[in-house]
């Protein structure tokens, strides 16, 4: 599996059902959301800006894409989690099954981040991102063409271990 | 990774936090439970009985183990899910990273089952079990020595797709 195929499979609208586990307190969180993933061209202005920020040659990138999500919160309309970010993969020139991923906003922290991804032999996408005070791992795999799963874990880098884990089931929204 | 090492790592008491997703209805389920995993000897009477049931030579098995779980239900003491099952791995004699797993009670159905397991290059345990009317996949991996994750999916075999997915975070209970 390579990043172009993975991004291609991911494009579209997804209905996401996500469960968060706070491991220390055994607390659960439940979020339903809609995720829109769309392709961006290599010479898109925002893509070029993100490349510049990270000193990356624009011709080394592949399949940039944009994610936008809007959550449903049962208890407070104003609290509904929403956001978006731009993602720019840079495949390794020697081994196309791995590379870097630039992100305009990180998962664990809302600042630009750079992660390292690798596809396992099964085609599971595994992304590791180091932040100042935390490290995040994200695993994404397709069960069918229209169903993908995502497991994210965040651990503090001071050695106290993993803080939260979350699991999302994402079903393609065929109605658009 | 081979089954003996995986079972060895799994022994002990685990505090489990499990989220179930009903994908069609976007319904969530939350269960906290305690899981005890203990080793059984190859010549244990119940192990031999399970081998006999499946016409398996007792000298082809490795690392049989027993699982017992007791859930906590917030709303009804009588409803707390509990159960136990005996598991008997039969490693493939040519490729020890894969094999069969006999189970005294299946995950999707409470009848004896036989699944096929394989360890990925990362050491993730992937078990596929076919039932009469359903197919189950279970993925288990260790994030640290004392934390393991488990993703289970059940799909009906009549082609209507995956019905439920669940995610468990299992933290080793060091207090015993």
UniProtKB/TrEMBL annotation, chains A, B:
Q: Which InterPro entries match?
A: Calycin, CpcS/CpeS
> Where are the membrane-spanning stretches?
none
Short name of one Pfam family for this protein? CpeS
List the keywords (alphabetical). Answer: Lyase
EC code: 4.-.-.-
Query: According to its UniProt record, which protein family does this protein belong to?
Result: Belongs to the CpcS/CpeS biliprotein lyase family.
* Role of this protein: Covalently attaches a chromophore to Cys residue(s) of phycobiliproteins.
This chain belongs to the protein called: Chromophore lyase CpcS/CpeS
The gene behind this protein is cpcS
